[in-house]
Each structure stands twice: as C-alpha cells, then as structure tokens.
C-alpha cells in the first residue's frame, strides 16, 4: 500500500497545535481458500427479494394458510444467541415417527442453527399444531444419510407449484437443483432433530394466530 506524501515540516515555533489526522487504512481483499482445500465455500447472503420470499411463509401462516403450508413447511422459533429475542424461521421438514427433522441449507453458519445450538429448547408450528421441542443435531453418519435422502425425497414430492418455482428461478434460486445439490455436498448439510418435550401430547403453546411480543420473521440473532 502506497503511503501519502509527507508535507514539509513547519518550524517548531510556528507549527500549529492540532491533533494529527487519522490515518486511512486500506484493507486488501481476502485471499480465497488454498488450492486443494476441502473447506466448504462461504455462500453470499441471499438477495433482498429472495430473502423476503423465503420469509413469506411466516406471514402466510398468520393469514390463516397454516393447513396448506403445514404439508411442507414449519415455523421454527429459536432464541437469539446474542439478543435473547425469539426468532421465527420457515423451513422444509421431514416427519419420521414422533420426531420432526429440519435441514440447514446454508450449512453450519445458518443463524437459526447457531441459535438453537446455544439454546436447544425451541418452539415448532406444523400446520395448526404447536409444541415445544428439544433440538439435537444428528451426528451419526449413517442416520444422517438416511434422513437426508428421506428429506430430499419429500421435499421434491411437496415442491412448490411450477409457477412459484419459475418465480424462484427468476429471483436466482432453483428449487430442484438446490435439493439435489444437498445430496452431493461434502460436508453434508446439518440436520436437526426436533424432539417434543412431552411426546404423545404435543402441548399447545398458544392459540393459533396469537401475536407474541418479540417474535420477528427474520434471520437476525
């Protein structure tokens, strides 16, 4: 980095007394990962319109479309690991027995994933059913692969209508390609089990449509 030219120094007697200006620091671009590295590339944040589209199920749930959306999408409420505020995230899910599974399409850096790792007790809404659950990340490779294939199969079966998928592609997201990419990723995307705290009863947290202070439909922490 080239330094700015130094001005001639005034004689000590006539030198004005004032604070020196702050230096301007130029930051060089970060180098990419070394060749041959297996480090997972960091994906850029989603464009504003696409991020809004992914958050739209929260509003649709609240507008009374829970029955329709609940076939493929749930609402996961986590506690922000920094703010302590509740955060709502819509996610595709897989139901296997009494356990519900969700996948982090953005990998280990997803805000909702890091939130539940800090605070494992979460709230889940699937259609009109609401329950509290304990979140556990799947670590067994064989079980993870089994669940990933089931999740991908269900996600393709319950895919959005062609018109909606066309809109998603115009916003820069290919739904089918994304699902299939997750099957080939190395390392694979994290999968989280949401186990009801009171299995068999799934207690209601509050009446459907009740507004809870502090709950926001975004991915902030």
Quick rundown:
The chain is an alpha+beta fold and 221 residues long. It has 6 helices and 6 strands. It is globular, with a radius of gyration of 24 Å.
Can you describe what's shown?
- By secondary structure, the protein is of the alpha+beta class.
- It has helices spanning 48-62, 66-69, 111-118, 141-157, 162-170, 175-184; strands at 73-79, 86-96, 99-103, 121-126, 129-137, 191-196.
- The protein has a domain at 48-196: Roll (Pnp Oxidase, Chain A), CATH 2.30.110.
- It is built from six helices and six strands; from the N terminus they run H-H-E-E-E-H-E-E-H-H-H-E.
- A six-stranded antiparallel β-barrel has the order 1-2-3-6-5-4.
- A hairpin with a 2-residue loop joins strand 2 and strand 3.
CATH architecture of the domain at 48-196: Roll
What is the helix tally?
A: 6
Supply the helix-strand structural class.
Answer: alpha+beta
User: How would a textbook summarize the main sheet?
Assistant: 6 strands, antiparallel, barrel
* The named CATH superfamily of the domain at 48-196: Electron Transport, Fmn-binding Protein, Chain A
What is the CA–CA distance across the termini? 36 Å
Fill in the CATH topology of the domain at 48-196: Pnp Oxidase, Chain A
Broad shape: globular
Instruction: Output the CATH class name of the domain at 48-196.
Output: Mainly Beta
């Amino acid at each position: 980095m080239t330094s700015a030219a130094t001005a001639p120094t005034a004689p000590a007697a006539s030198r004005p007394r004032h604070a020196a200006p702050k230096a301007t620091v130029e930051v060089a671009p970060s180098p990419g990962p070394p060749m041959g590295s297996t480090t997972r590339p960091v994906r850029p944040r989603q464009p504003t319109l696409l991020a809004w589209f992914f958050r739209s199920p929260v509003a649709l749930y609240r507008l009374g479309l829970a029955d329709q959306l609940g076939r493929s999408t749930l609402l996961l409420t986590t506690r922000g690991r920094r703010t302590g505020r509740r955060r709502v995230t819509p996610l595709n899910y897989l139901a296997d027995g009494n356990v519900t599974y969700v996948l982090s399409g953005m990998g280990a850096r997803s805000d909702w994933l890091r939130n539940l790792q800090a605070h494992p007790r979460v709230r889940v809404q699937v259609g009109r059913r609401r329950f509290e659950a304990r979140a556990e990340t799947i670590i067994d490779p064989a079980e993870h692969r089994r669940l990933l294939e089931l999740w991908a199969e269900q996600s393709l079966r319950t895919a959005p209508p062609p018109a909606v998928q066309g809109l998603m592609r115009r916003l820069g997201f290919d739904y089918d390609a994304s699902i299939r990419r997750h099957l080939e990723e190395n390392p694979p995307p994290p999968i989280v089990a949401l186990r009801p705290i009171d299995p068999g009863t799934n207690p209601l947290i509050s009446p459907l449509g009740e507004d809870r202070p502090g709950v926001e439909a975004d991915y902030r922490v």
